[in-house]
Amino acid sequence: MEKENLSLTQLLALEFIFLLGSAIIMGVGTELRQNSWIAIAIATVLGTGIMYLFYTLNELLPNHNLFEIMEYGFTRPVAIFISVFYIIYFLYISSRLNRDFVELIATAILPLTPIEVISLTVMLVIIYIVYLGVEVLARVSEIFFPYLLGFIFLLIVFLFASGRIKLQNAQPMLGDGFMPVIKGIFPGLITFPFGELIVFTVILSSVTHLKKAKKVVLLGVVMAGFSLTFATVIMLMSLGADTMEFSIFPLLSAARKISIANFIERTDALVVFIMLLGILVKSSLFFYAGLKGLEYIFRIPYRDFTFPIGMTVACFTVWVSANFAEHEEEGLVFVTRYLHPPMQFGIPFLLLGIILWKTKKRQKANKKSTAV
Amino acid sequence: MVTFSFLAVFMLLGSLVIFIDTLLFHYSFMETAMNMFYFQLTEDKLILALMGICGMIWAIVVDVRRKRKKGNPEQPHS
């Protein structure tokens, strides 16, 4: 199988865009109202710990992706069995992400275009990128990373300049105590977006200097968490807790409020760009991870699967739910509570325990043999 | 193998979607399956069917090419 190489800068860009991805547009923890940013800040700290554990998994067995690590931990037949679940999980999340994007486009800029057409066009781009390799995706992220930061910065400046930021919207803080914040973090914020970093256990095997990557992966989580927290504060102050909670795309609603001298208006395009890049990177990574799983099971290069499986994902982008309300309900109830926890924490932590135990056992055996 | 994986992924993803709908919205299995393929416009159905068929044909072509390659391994240059 062809080896791909990612630089540390590319890894940082990928991680940052991945974490902001859909989270910044769809809004995370908005049900916590004025406490949402506090919850995101705490979840960022926990997310850094989660990423460290995922990194440790890769560090113990360098140049092995999640599926190969599972083979080391559980033996190949068991690894294949669990890989099937991971493949379906990754592809399902990829479909859901595409659906988020499709709904945004249908709401914001192309209301008359059938969602099937939007789904197909987005998926064709993702298929092409993934076919060219994760290196290409990383380069795309590296190039657009400054643009993303610039556009977020511009949106915030515009909101300040148009006088839409009201500090009183952020009050009262912790009005109902600390319990709602804890309930919002577990399992809501911890699984989305931070738990989704599980996909990086597939990508980290392609990083050239894995030993130096530790600081970079942790920095990526901190940077993205800080940006997410800051963006949530801005959305809260500009929209108010009620509008932010019930808005489908809070950042889009905030951007629509921008009006400077009746000249700078309709900045929706900036939001759509942020969403486009975020979803493109995030969905591509999930799609790539799913394909790598198929590569592991069938021992066929993942590129052979790209188009057929891509078309399946495009179909399921539409079939995944009948409408956006159903899509949100599934995301908040089923995916967050029942799908994410075992795939993001249950299996990886069990795997980590087994690998650590096996490594210690091997070290003891080595010590004994050298003593004899 | 690519065709098999295509069909397997299609079936498993479909099962997951149906399972989620039956669990969350208390529909019967058949109701959920029918809802999945229900569209107001025929064009939408056609686009989706076309995407699925394209994927299937591509998978078969890849399998045939792989089989041919296996049958006729490239001769080393003398």
Total helical segments of chain B? 3
Which strand-content bin applies to the residues of chain A? under 5%
Domain module tally of chain A: 1
CATH architecture label of chain A: Orthogonal Bundle
List how many beta strands of chain A DSSP finds.
0
SSE pattern of chain A, N- to C-terminal: HHHHHHHHHHHHHHH
Strand content of chain B: under 5%
Rg value of chain B: 19 Å
Mean pLDDT of chain B: 86
Distance between the termini of chain B: 33 Å
Q: Enumerate the spans of chain A where pLDDT stays under 50 for 5 or more consecutive residues.
A: none
Described by strand count, sense and barrel closure, the largest sheet of chain A is: none
Number of strands of chain B: 0
| CATH fold field value of chain A | Hydantoin permease
Biggest interface, and residues per chain?
A-B, 34 and 34 residues
| Corresponding CATH superfamily of chain A | Hydantoin permease
Supply Rg of chain A.
21 Å
Describe this protein's structure.
The complex is a heterodimer of chains A (372) and B (78). Chain A has 372 residues and is mainly alpha-helical. The longest helix of chain A has 48 residues, at 324-371. Chain A has one domain (27-321): Hydantoin permease (Orthogonal Bundle), CATH 1.10.4160.10. Chain A is 77% helix and 0% strand. The mean pLDDT of chain A is 91. Chain B contains three helices and no strands. Chain B has helices spanning 2-25, 29-36, 42-71. In chain B, helix 1 (2-25) packs across helix 2 and helix 1 packs antiparallel against helix 3 (42-71). The longest helix of chain B has 30 residues, at 42-71. Chain B starts with a helix and ends in a 7-residue tail after the last helix. The model of chain B has no long low-confidence stretch (mean pLDDT 86). The A-B interface holds A 84, 87-88, 91-92, 95, 114, 116-117, 120, 294, 297-298, 300, 304-305, 307-312, 314-316, 318-320, 322, 326, 329-330, 333-334 and B 1-3, 5-6, 9-10, 12-14, 16-17, 20, 23-25, 35-38, 41, 43-44, 47-48, 51-52, 54-56, 58-59, 62, 66.
